[in-house]
Design goal:
Length: 439
């Protein structure tokens, strides 16, 4: 099917990328973009910068860079802004995060030092382990949302941006279940006025962005934009949204490995995942209420991929456990262990062990970039509401009501590539028999 009719506005002018939360991930992302733009390094892990995709028939080998096909905004024309509860500028915050080499940060000190976080909308009740002074005061959550909207407007004017996107890189908030106040825009706005306890700061940022038609992605597992009220608002204001929780270390491995084991009809009896990490994120997740949010996000993956109800003989007894242990000596250099108990021919047991010595923020930074640039592309392409094709980047992808999110990374990639072909006016590829586009 050819799609020459789709109209995507050209990415002219400057794109402002707004980041609530300017800690390890956000600063590694910003410093990385500067390093790439100055020719100091390479944007490995980013599909918008390095990914290629097939265009046209298999008989003609044509695999151009995605950015040469899809009208993606130029990386050289982006500016950054954000909020944090600490006053440190991006250079200082990046030094504190200890992810990137001091020698690299030194070379980027001038532009990074100029980016200073705006005062945050923060409430300690939702992130008990943190306490910072760079925080807005306001009598109601609605007034705080309006203050954020003023920040956004003034950032756009000062930096002469033609468009903005927002990616939540703030800490994981405590576990909150969807409740009545999240159901409709009216209930939600009334909740903002009455300081409803089920509206944490991440929802206030999401509301401010979506209300202004600014694409919003949520990199943490808290609900944020994943509630009916904000999904409806996104439709109303023509805003693309995507959430939740960047898919980086162990869950990335899971969504790569589990579809492969299932494709060969191998049984899985147990999957035990544990890891140690010592960054600020690890410290926040050391609180059981905040860990619960992360745990729920991580646990959904296997169930959806393996479908135990469809394959009870292979997966009905699967025992899935996820642990995160705060261990300061490791900082951002997380180590994740997986023990997978599998079953083969005649029910014989086997084991797989994974020891992934990864770097959390190094894996997350290209995701922030791709989400920002793809959401901006979606907006220019007239797409709004939940962008399921961006589930590729997320641990707990937001899906339309009544639909299960897709976790299999290969199916997610097929959907992402076809959406990009669609937005580029290229022919879709359906690999005969794959029907990811039928909803
Ligand atoms: N790094 C990864 O691999 C990865 C993967 C998935 C999800 N995440 C999530 O991404 C988020 C960021 O991770 P990180 O490693 O950068 O954490 P971090 O602790 O280094 O940074 C988070 C920053 O958010 C700030 N913050 C907290 N609440 C805020 C608020 N209401 N407004 C503004 N700022 C606020 C904190 O002060 C902190 O500086 C976390 O929620 C984490 O769970 C990270």
């Amino acid at each position: 099917m050819s799609n020459k009719k789709v109209r995507v506005k050209k990415p002219t002018g400057k794109l402002g990328i707004l980041l609530p939360g300017m800690g390890a991930v956000a600063t590694t992302f910003i410093a990385g973009v500067y390093a790439v733009n100055e020719g100091l390094s390479t944007p490995i892990g980013s599909l918008t910068q390095m990914g290629r995709m097939r265009i046209g028939k298999r008989t003609k080998v044509n695999k151009p860079l995605i950015k040469d096909v899809a009208p993606i905004h130029d990386l050289k024309k982006v500016v950054f802004g954000g909020w944090d509860i600490y006053k440190d500028n991006v250079y200082e915050a990046a030094v504190n995060a200890q992810v990137l080499e001091p020698s690299l940060l030194e070379k980027l000190k001038t532009p990074l030092s100029k980016i200073k976080p705006m005062k945050a909308v923060f409430d300690k009740n939702y992130v008990k382990k943190l306490d910072g002074k760079n925080v807005k005061r306001g009598k109601t959550k609605m007034l705080l949302a309006k203050a954020l909207m003023r920040d956004i407007k003034s950032f756009k004017e000062t930096n002469k941006c033609s468009r903005l996107v927002m990616v939540w890189c703030g800490s994981t908030e405590i576990y909150i279940k969807e409740s009545k106040v999240h159901k409709t825009i009216e209930a939600f706005e009334a909740g903002l006025e009455s300081n409803h306890k089920d509206i944490p700061p991440s929802m206030i940022y999401a509301y401010a962005a979506i209300k202004m038609g600014i694409p919003y992605a949520n990199g943490a597992p808290n609900l944020s934009c994943d509630i009916p009220a904000l999904v409806a608002l996104a439709k109303e204001t023509g805003t693309p949204i995507a959430g939740k929780d960047f898919k980086t270390g162990q869950t990335l491995m899971k969504t790569i490995l589990a579809p492969g084991l299932k494709s060969r009809a191998l049984g899985i009896e147990g999957w035990f995942s544990t890891n140690i990490l010592g960054n600020r994120d690890g410290e926040v997740l050391d609180d059981p209420d905040n860990f619960k949010t992360k745990e729920v996000s991580k646990l959904g993956v296997l169930e959806q991929i393996l479908e135990p109800s469809v394959h009870p003989e292979l997966y009905a007894n699967l025992y899935h456990k996820v642990r995160i242990n705060y261990y300061p000596p490791r900082g951002d250099a997380k180590e994740g262990w997986d023990n997978i108990d599998i079953r083969g021919w005649l029910n014989y047991p086997m084991q797989i062990k994974i020891d992934f010595l990864c770097r959390d923020s190094i894996l997350a930074a290209p995701i922030v970039l791709d989400l920002a640039l793809f959401l901006d592309l979606a907006k220019r392409g007239g797409m709004s509401g939940i962008q399921e094709w961006l589930g590729f980047y997320l641990k707990s992808p937001q899906a339309k009501k009544g639909l299960h999110p897709e976790h299999d990374i290969f199916k997610q990639l097929a959907k992402l590539e076809n959406t990009l072909r669609y937005l580029s006016g290229e022919e879709l590829i359906n690999h005969l028999g794959l029907d990811y586009y039928e909803e």
